[in-house]
Write a structure and sequence with these properties.
- By secondary structure, the protein is an alpha+beta fold.
- It has one domain: Ubiquitin Conjugating Enzyme (Roll), CATH 3.10.110.
- Helices cover 40% and strands 17% of the residues.
- It has five helices and four strands; from the N terminus they run H-H-E-E-E-E-H-H-H.
- A four-stranded antiparallel beta sheet has the order 1-2-3-4.
- Helix 4 packs across helix 5.
- The relative contact order is 0.15.
Length: 164
Amino acid sequence: MFISLLSDKRFRSCFVLRFMRVSLTRCTSFLDTTQGCSASPHSDDNLFVWSATICGPQDSPWEGGIFSLRLTFSDSYPASAPRVRFVSEMFHPNIYPDGTLCMDTIQEQWSPVHSVASLLTSVRSLLCDPNVNSPANPQAAKMLVEEEKEYNKRVRRLARKTIE
């Protein structure tokens, strides 16, 4: 019976909205105890679009930056991953020029057990541990591999720009 209810679009939308409210509650408690990430709905009118921030990890070229993201959830969340896009200008091997993130956690390895908090933690970790073998931005990947000092200099400039 529950499966047939999920096929009803109105029921599914209500189910997803309830799930989003639970996610918001869990995310808020996560953000109270963990530094470096925050997220909340972009507006009270639409729980499917969230604004998030990630602080650049310490002891990295990202340190000191405050990077803005937009998370867009579909009505099939949590079965499908949200779309994650940086609003801040980024230069990273796994971030497309338009800010869209290329990361296994939101692609092939998505699972409904991932929360907004765990997703943001993964994104923050990815900043310092890029996958240069599967780049979304080949120019950034090439620069990181061949000219790491120049790559780090460019990233530090972007980090400073986020707080100006």
